[in-house]
Amino acid sequence: MASAAYKLIYFNVRARAEPIRLLFHAAGVPFDDKRIDSKEWPKMKPSIPGGRLPVLLVTKEGEKPKFYDESMAIARLFARKFNLLGNTDEEFYKIERLIGQCGDLDREMINIFCADKERKSQLTEQFTEKFAPNIVKLICQSLTESGGDFLLGSKLSFGDLYLMSTMDQVNVVAPHLLDEKCAPIQSNRDAVLRDRPNVQTYLKGRPVSLL
């Protein structure tokens, strides 16, 4: 791991790169968090596999640099490398279930972000009143049933980090969703920050963005 250099390339927003950023910070693995603006992208795009971001450029001594694309493939690969993807089939399932639930929320929030003003108001109401509450309730139930601070009880996993990324966006779109009834989610976040000071340091200096 120490012989490799990592550069994560994405725009200056959280979005699809944020779970990867949190993963590397939680693992304590240094990486270059390369954030580009929209003016840089047209010139850079032809050199990027598939012409899409994020990508992770991995450089190892004596080897040709290699691009990894597709955000969730990158995240799952390095979650496994960092031993944050569970040790049993049941643990892996719990992580994947939580990622799936968060992914459902993420997709709806992206739709809200991209909508025009009139449609945005309608979608936000649907998200807040109909779509999100049941998923948030299921997530809280999973955390409560874990018997510990984390999704897997006493140990951090990629599921906890992905949850943090999603809930940061929920706080932008519908902050009142995470009220006192969602105490397990806040407790989980607090536990991650206690367990991984690198994550807390990163969050304190993270650029503010709407996505």
Question: How many H/I helices?
Answer: 8
How much of the polypeptide forms β-strand, as a percent range? 5-15%
CATH topology of the largest domain: Glutathione S-transferase Yfyf (Class Pi), Chain A, domain 2
Strand order in the largest sheet: 2-1-3-4
Q: Return the average pLDDT rounded to an integer.
A: 95
The biggest sheet amounts to: 4 strands, mixed
List unreliable stretches of 5+ residues. Answer: none
Q: What order do the SSEs take from the amino end to the carboxyl end, as H and E?
A: EHEHEEHHHHHH
Strand element count = 4
Oligomer: single chain
Percentage of residues assigned to helices: 55-70%
Number of domains as seen in the coordinates: 2
CATH architecture of the largest domain: Up-down Bundle
Topology overview:
Layout: E1 4-11, H1 18-27, E2 32-36, H2 41-44, E3 55-60, E4 66-69, H3 71-81, H4 89-114, H5 117-145, H6 158-173, H7 183-195, H8 197-205
Parallel strand pairs: 1-2
Antiparallel strand pairs: 1-3, 3-4
Describe the structure.
The longest helix has 29 residues, at 117-145. The protein has helices spanning 18-27, 41-44, 71-81, 89-114, 117-145, 158-173, 183-195, 197-205, and strands spanning 4-11, 32-36, 55-60, 66-69. The chain is built from eight helices and four strands. The chain has a four-stranded mixed sheet. It is globular. The model has no long low-confidence stretch (mean pLDDT 95). Helix 1 crosses helix 6 (158-173) and helix 6 (158-173) crosses helix 7 (183-195). Strand 1 (4-11), helix 1 and strand 2 (32-36) form a beta-alpha-beta unit. It has two domains: 4-82 and 198-205, 3-Layer(aba) Sandwich (Glutaredoxin), CATH 3.40.30; 89-195, Glutathione S-transferase Yfyf (Class Pi), Chain A, domain 2, CATH 1.20.1050. The protein is of the alpha+beta class.
